[in-house]
Amino acid sequence: MTGFLHGLRSEGLIAIVRGTDAAASVRTSLALLDEGYRFLEISLTTPDALDVIAEVAREAPAGTHIGGGTMLTVDDVTRVRDVGGTFTVTPAVAASVAESARIGMPVVAGAMTPTEVVAAMVAGATAVKLFPASVGGPPYLKAVRDPLPHVPFVAVGGVDVDMVARYFEVGAIGVGLGSPLIGDAAAGGDLGALRARAKRFREAVAPWLAGAAAR
Question: What's domain 2-214's architecture?
């Protein structure tokens, strides 16, 4: 768990692939890996998601974390682990949180309110996914984090390239990037445009990560 958090703090970005086409989702994931992304979440709502996770995990370079997203049940955790997934992401404090913790898989657990945040940590969350972050934006994350400074927060939901630095400024250890990064690529759209967006997001986070490393 410590290694996962250290890596996430160093990288700062989780790419969230929620596709409508399995082959396009694989191509999207491999393009992101090629662009240097090392944390990829593949949502179980993607068609043939387990096959997508398995294929991407086989192709991923060493040190890459390929996880399952939209994880709700104990069975979801087992299935993702069995095809090579190495972490889980949930939209809420579901049964998948405690099960992931029980078997030693890092889990980024979805929560919105302070009560949910505390419940997620008690259940064994490695980090908390503030979701949907767009509801309150960086000021809300700051307000929640002020009384809970020990909680590692990842902001997810509507985080565009202009918002990235603001979330880090109020204490996020990372951000999750869905449609603002993926666009239509996981539905068969333009991979060149995806790569351009991927570069912009990495450029946006780079100064903050460099500054944090120096502090």
Answer: Alpha-Beta Barrel (3.20)
